[in-house]
């Protein structure tokens, strides 16, 4: 049942309140819900609870919904990303009743006397509409997954150091069964038991190889934590709990749990094309683009490719990329490095060292900026992806030709 005109007016009228109190509401919601349902600790990223990325993400979704009540079709791209994440984590329709209960309780506690019966009624119905939208799409995604529903045991077949802080894990099904294909650019959720915590923790990792029938590959970067913001607003993001545990304590022969590949950042393998593709990445954002790169190389030999990557030092898969360049005349590459390592000087690959990613340093021809059908795939930290997209749009690139994958909770609730 749709909102009445008066209820829509009430929800839209609460937008200023949400902008002011939204993160407080969603932060209280998560803490209260997880306390009442400790089994959900196995589902939610507790690091992103602590650094408030998760509450911020949920607040973003709620605000977007309240702002688009009369044209909810504009929410589809945002909600598609959310639905893929939910299915990757195994969220089911029954979880929405739990979420609705504690979300409305958090509204009431934060707003106090301002939480009127009219506001409660309007937001209760609004949440039901949003939940139905998400559930409907998620049911469809689960149907696409086929027989593989939920978590499945995988064995680490190989663990390979790509750089000093990025390791590739080759994962094979413990049951010896077959693996479904995936669309290059997608991710899996992986979860492990965290020592001393008494619960499982899931994380999403992009698949870094083309679809194979016998294994999945992910490439995991050590997370040392980072300070965000300046002055009194600065805070320290906690180091990656799961990534560091995988790198430090997991080896070939160990087992992990994995869900079906998902994600809306992907490369269309059904469309054979000769149009240029520009792949732009930073840090561990290289993972999904490596999958896309290998897919193009294997299946579309006449397609021009530009590969542009920025990392602190030597890039993961750099030797692989350089070998492609040697055998493919329509391939251009550029590596930026923000720090210089002695090994790079010795190997003669120190060109471009000490430079952060700057697309203005790259020839327009290599970026295919004057080609009206070139496709751009950008993957990396959120601020990086935003800056790269902004530059391309400023050069006249149609936003419809730019695809982004950012490595943060971002808009995903």
UniProtKB/TrEMBL annotation:
**NADP listed as a keyword:** yes
The UniProt entry's sequence similarity note says: In the C-terminal section; belongs to the flavoprotein pyridine nucleotide cytochrome reductase family.
Say which species the protein is native to: Bionectria ochroleuca
Keywords, sorted A to Z: Detoxification, FAD, Flavoprotein, Heme, Iron, Metal-binding, NAD, NADP, Oxidoreductase
Indicate the enzyme's highest-level EC class: oxidoreductase
What superkingdom does the record give? Eukaryota
Record domain FAD-binding FR-type: where: 149-268
**What Gene3D superfamilies is this protein classified in?**
Globins, Nucleotide-binding domain of ferredoxin-NADP reductase (FNR) module, Translation factors
Q: What is its EC number?
A: 1.14.12.17
Record-given protein name: nitric oxide dioxygenase
Cofactor(s) needed: heme b; FAD
């Amino acid at each position: 049942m749709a909102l009445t005109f008066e209820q829509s007016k009430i929800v839209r009228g609460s937008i200023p309140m949400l902008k002011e109190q939204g993160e407080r509401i969603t932060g209280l919601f998560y803490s209260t819900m997880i306390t009442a349902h400790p089994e959900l600790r196995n589902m939610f990223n507790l690091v992103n609870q602590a650094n408030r990325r998760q509450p911020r993400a949920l607040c973003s979704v709620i605000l977007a919904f309240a702002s688009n009540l009369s044209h909810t079709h504009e929410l589809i791209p945002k909600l598609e990303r959310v639905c893929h994440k939910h299915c990757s984590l195994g969220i089911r329709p029954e979880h929405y009743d739990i979420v609705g209960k504690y979300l409305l309780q958090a509204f009431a506690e934060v707003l106090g006397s301002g939480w009127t019966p009219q506001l409660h009624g309007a937001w209760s119905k609004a949440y039901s509409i949003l939940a139905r939208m998400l559930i409907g799409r998620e049911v469809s995604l689960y149907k696409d997954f086929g027989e593989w529903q939920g978590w499945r045991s995988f064995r680490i077949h190989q663990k390979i150091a790509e750089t000093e802080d990025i390791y590739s894990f080759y994962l094979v099904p413990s049951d010896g069964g077959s693996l479904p294909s995936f669309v290059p650019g997608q991710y899996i959720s992986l979860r492990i038991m965290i020592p001393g915590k008494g619960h499982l923790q899931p994380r999403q990792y992009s698949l870094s190889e083309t679809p194979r029938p016998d294994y999945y590959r992910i490439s995991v970067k050590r997370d040392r934590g980072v300070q965000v913001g300046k002055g009194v607003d600065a805070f320290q993001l906690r180091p990656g709990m799961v990534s560091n545990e995988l790198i430090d304590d997991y080896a070939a022969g160990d087992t992990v749990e994995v869900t079906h590949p998902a994600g809306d950042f992907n490369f269309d393998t059904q469309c054979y094309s000769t149009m240029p593709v520009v792949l732009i990445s930073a840090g561990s954002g290289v993972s999904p683009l490596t999958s896309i790169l290998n897919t193009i190389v294997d299946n579309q030999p006449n397609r021009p490719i530009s590969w542009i990557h920025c990392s602190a030092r030597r890039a993961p898969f750099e030797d692989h990329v350089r070998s492609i360049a040697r055998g493919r005349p329509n391939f251009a590459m550029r590596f930026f490095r923000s720090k210089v390592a002695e090994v790079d000087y010795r190997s003669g690959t120190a060109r471009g060292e000490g430079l952060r990613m700057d697309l203005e340093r790259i020839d327009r021809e290599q970026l295919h900026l004057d080609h009206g059908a070139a496709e751009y795939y950008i993957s990396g930290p959120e601020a990086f992806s935003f800056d790269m997209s902004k530059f391309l749009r400023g050069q006249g690139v149609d936003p419809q030709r730019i695809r982004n994958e950012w490595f943060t909770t971002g808009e995903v609730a």
